[in-house]
Amino acid sequence: MDDTIIDRRKFLYGTTTVGVAGLAGCSGNGGEASDEGSGGGGGSDGGSGDEDSDEEMSDDSGDEESEASLELRVGTSAGGTQDVGLAVERAVSEESDSLEYSTIESPGYIGTIYRMAQEQFNAGITDNNSLNKALDETGQFAEQPVSRIPYYGFSAFPYSIYFIARDGTGIETFDDLAGANVYPAEPGYSTRATTLDVLSQDPTADVFDQMNIQNMGVGDAPGAMEEGTIDASIAYGTPGVRYTGFVQEMASRVDLHYVEPTDALIESAESFAGAGTTRTPYSEWEMPQDIGTDEVFTWDLEVLYAFNPEANNDAVYELCRVVDEQNDVVNEGEAQFNDFESTEEMLGYAQEAIPVHPGAVQYYEDNDAWDDSLQVGE
């Protein structure tokens, strides 16, 4: 790895930010954060867009942990992400005698990173694309950087993304999206931001530049697809569980088919550091109709639990233990949470560029699951 990256990372994790405290009054897209996967894109301000009171949100992590060493306050977006967080909270309440877990609503994945930088909570659910942008100071973080970035803890769930098109449009492959009216989800959504990030790279930038990107709320998209003003849209959800709401509504109102990925699209998705890729049998998460494929290739928004460096090591260790040993209890509460077949799978979204929290590292080491290619947070 480039030494300049390592040196810069030490600065990021070792200093306090200048000006980030002022973000508490920024305008954010609080409403957008209510949908699954929302609030993490470049269009989301990431500040305190919702109207949380200072009394509820203000918190000094150091004082908190001195009073209750095994306590985690977890920033969690509304919608499907919050459902996952609440399922984890219930599992902790039922299965741990030592850890106190509190779910604190946060405005999206980028908003969670900003609020963790402000020490409003010491843990949060975010995604790899947002963390990479914070680390590289790109997207929204180019104008409003943070100088403390949370450490990786464990994977939570994916939002797997691919293209569908309305029957009769003549769109069969990704190349046919050039000149088409394409809906990549609502502005401000993480799934949209990740999709646009993937497509704007070489070798797909030429097709992307010719798309007519549609900007509207998810509530209007099914009607626009039915009326013919949207030709193609992303479809996304968690494989084996469900699609997000507007995609289900589209599928109930319009005849749709799968848009075959080209080699260029596969290359762009696989080379993008902010997302993973998978190939999934369509039978594992069918829409209410046959879209003409047996397998879907997806680029995946990887949603994960992250922890501030100051988060108590024993608290992080205990949370890792609960979600691993009591994975079935979490899944019973919310099927969207990952079904871990092994402890190693908890590291499934870990990246070399983002250190792992020491408390989580200790848990992985104790269970012979640690990957020596990853970094340990200081």
Q: Give the beta-strand count.
A: 11
What count of helical segments does DSSP give?
A: 14
Helix content: 25-40%
Q: What does the largest sheet look like?
A: 11 strands, mixed
What percent strand?
Answer: 15-25%
In angstroms, what is the radius of gyration?
20 Å
pLDDT < 50 runs, ≥5 residues: 1-68
Q: Regarding CATH, which class of the largest domain? A: Alpha Beta
Q: Order of helices and strands, N to C? A: HHHEHEHEHEEHHEHEEHEHEEHHH
Mean pLDDT: 85
What spatial form do the alpha-carbon principal axes imply?
globular
Determine the structural class based on helices, strands and strand pairing: alpha/beta
What is the assembly state of the chains in this entry?
single chain
**Overall domain count:** 2
What is the name of the CATH architecture of the largest domain? 3-Layer(aba) Sandwich
- Quote the distance from N terminus to C terminus: 18 Å
The named CATH superfamily of the largest domain: Periplasmic binding protein-like II
Commentary on this structure:
Strands 1, 2, 3, 4, 5, 6, 7, 8, 9, 10 and 11 form an eleven-stranded mixed beta sheet that branches. By secondary structure, this protein is α/β, with parallel strands linked by helices. Helix 4 (80-95) links the parallel strand 1 and strand 2 (100-105). The model is unreliable at 1-68 (pLDDT under 50). Helix 4 (80-95) packs across helix 13 (327-333), helix 12 (313-325) crosses helix 13 and helix 12 crosses helix 14 (358-366). 34% of the residues lie in helices and 18% in strands. The chain is built from 14 helices and eleven strands. The protein has helices at residues 3-14, 54-57, 61-67, 80-95, 108-117, 128-136, 190-199, 205-210, 221-227, 245-253, 263-271, 313-325, 327-333, 358-366, and strands spanning 71-76, 100-105, 123-127, 151-166, 181-183, 212-213, 232-238, 242-243, 256-258, 276-281, 295-307. It folds into two domains: 3-157 and 304-366, Periplasmic binding protein-like II (D-Maltodextrin-Binding Protein, domain 2, 3-Layer(aba) Sandwich), CATH 3.40.190.10; 159-301, D-Maltodextrin-Binding Protein, domain 2, CATH 3.40.190.
